[in-house]
Amino acid sequence: MISADGQQEGAEAGKATNSKAPTIPLAKPGTPLNDYARFDYVALEQRAKNYKEMFPNETIVTISAEANIPMQSLLFTMDALAGRECKLARALKGEAVPANCYFWQPVVEAGAG
Question: What ranges in 1-113 are assigned the alpha helix state H?
Answer without folding.
Answer: 41-54, 71-82
